[in-house]
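User: Can you predict the 3D structure for this chain?
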Amino acid sequence: MLSLPSFDNQRLIFHAARQTRRKAEMARLAVHEWLNQHDFELEEWKNKTALQMGIGISELEHKLLAAAQSQVVSSNKDDNPDSETKSCVSS
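Assistant: Here is the predicted structure, written as structure tokens:
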């Protein structure tokens, strides 16, 4: 049987998680709508940038995705300083 404070903490954690999911879904919809509205401009920018770099559009897209992924990885490492120490200890 759960004590009242324990139940209350679990209820608050569940509520916070639900709110976070709702906010993330609202952000996803807003970004999706913005991308749809500015699709032509984004395509124009990709064409111009790829031409300036002397590479194909698919290669530019690949580089952009790789850069975004490395940013996420480095951001995750910055957010969790213990992860680096744990990986060094476990090696």
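Residues 85-91 have pLDDT under 50 and may be disordered. The two ends are 41 Å apart (CA to CA).
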